[in-house]
Specification:
Blueprint (H helix, E strand, L loop, with lengths): L2 H15 L9 H13 L6 E5 L1 H8 L12 H10 L2 E9 L3 H11 L6 E7 L5 E9 L2 E10 L4 E8 L3 H13 L1
Antiparallel strand pairs: 1-2, 2-6, 3-4, 4-5, 5-6
Length: about 170
């Protein structure tokens, strides 16, 4: 599976869970930080990192300046973006099964709740996991690996279910 498929799955999962929440400093997040950091400079990996600062900047955009004050969907997106705390993505097509197993061993996925698991006969594995407290999702984690590609995607933020629901309703109107 290719990374563009995972972006689509990530967006679907985000809509399904209706939110992301504040980043945490617990051991699972630390394990993900360490895992990501250990490969961020590795030339075998494609890396995407969006810092909390960028999400804060997006959240400060005035919809009136961008002539979007009448665009409820754009307002909902900006409202959600200001609460995101980060996005990290690692992908590689070199020994993907090894990296999937390694990530599963190093990241305590038992601290997460499983949203979606897909395993096919060709050995591909996809897992969407979340951490949730009080109707707020603390992290959305995607782990995928198989014969073709390894993907680790971690969203952290502070979005509640109501904000995602509002965005979904605005998207449905169009």
């Amino acid at each position: 599976m290719k990374i563009k498929h995972f972006f689509t799955l990530a967006i679907i999962a985000m809509a399904a869970v209706n939110g992301l929440a504040q980043g945490t400093t617990n051991t699972a997040a630390s394990a993900i930080d360490k895992y990501f950091s250990s490969y961020v400079e590795d030339k075998r990996f494609d890396v995407v990192y969006i810092s909390p600062k960028l999400f804060q900047m997006i959240g400060r955009i005035d919809s009136k300046i961008l002539d979007m004050e009448d665009d409820a969907e754009a307002k909902a997106v900006l409202d959600m973006a200001k609460d995101l705390q980060g996005l990290r993505i690692l992908t590689t097509d070199e020994t993907p099964e090894f990296f999937y197993k390694e990530a599963k061993a190093k990241i305590n996925t038992k601290e997460y709740e499983v949203l979606l698991t897909v395993r096919d006969k060709d050995g591909d594995n996809v897992e969407f996991l979340i951490k949730e407290t009080n109707n707020v999702i603390q992290e959305l984690l995607l782990l995928s690996g198989g014969k073709d590609e390894f993907v680790l995607l971690s969203f952290m933020g502070n979005l509640d279910l109501n904000k995602i629901t509002r965005l979904a309703k605005e998207i449905e109107k169009k």
